[in-house]
Amino acid sequence: IFVLDKDVNIVDTNELARKIFQYSADEFAKMKLQNLVTFESRTLKWSDVFVSIFNDGNWRGEMLGTAKNQKIINVEITISKPEVSPDNVQNMICFLRDITRRKKIELELKNSNIRNSAMLRAIPDMMFRISPDGKFIDFKVFDEEKFNLKSEKNEFIKNLNEVFSDDIVNQFLEHAKAALETKQIQHFENQINAKKGIIDYEVRLVVSGQNEVLCMMRDISIRKKNEKELEKLSLVASKTDNAVIISSEDGIVEWVN
User: Fold this and answer.
1) Is the pLDDT at 117 greater than 90, yes or no?
2) Dihedral angle of Cα 126, 189, 110, 146, to the nearest 10 degrees
3) Hey, how many other C-beta atoms are within 10 angstroms of the C-beta on 250?
4) End-to-end CA distance of the chain
5) How far apart are CA 139 and CA 127, in angstroms?
């Protein structure tokens, strides 16, 4: 976690950020976020990030981080204005997650025979293959506790629109098309209506054949909830004169005011 000022200077960090990048708190205090991370895509600029934060309240994307020892790290970043004080842009919260291992698996999937890969069985995500027009080709893993695998006629579902709403289906189709055209992994996040209610999902799509895409869906509801709670606690902690320490259940310090 990073606390940033309006000029993206690093105001504060938690212990895990210091562990990942191997800089001390004093070293971080002399740096901007741009000193640590760069865009994977040359088409993206920091001005795009600031526009998104100003208009939408947040920006999320994948970037390349460089640790003090010059080790390259794949990271997922969310930068947002605190929800409890959205008009105060003096400070911003940056959540950074190390996704190096996940990116390695995705690359191996992309370069291997995806249909027969043993790696599929080791990934906890819900997975299925679809055609560009939204038809299911097969199911690798499908969570029947959250979604119906069969229709009301007790027949196996054949199309995305039998499971998901129109706006979610459109996102699948748009990103499937982009994956097939660019041969690059695509991803999106959305709230999806499941049997047990609304669930936050991250969906990643990778080309798995000449005219098909493998979709990997991960439930990120807990992560989203924790981010919002931690964001609120961090803002409160930063405004009190008392010493406040926020830690995870396993004792890792997440925040010190």
Assistant:
1) no
2) 10
3) 5
4) 12
5) 6
* DSSP result, 115-182: GG-GGGGG--SEEEEE-TTSBEEEEEE--TTTS-SB-TTS-B--BGGGTS-HHHHHHHHHHHHHHHHH
pLDDT value of position 109:
63
In what helix (H) or strand (E) does residue 65 lie, and over which residues does it extend? strand 58-66
| Dihedral sign of CA atoms 125, 129, 132, 135 in order | negative
Its sign, for the CA torsion 43, 48, 53, 56, is: negative
Residue whose C-alpha is closest to residue 237's, from 32, 58, 97, 93? 93
How far is it, in rounded angstroms, from Cα 238 to Cα 2? 13
Backbone angles phi, psi at 147, to 5 degrees: -135, 150
pTM, to two decimals: 0.54
pLDDT in tens, 126-172: 888 899 999 988 876 566 677 766 556 656 678 898 888 899 999 99
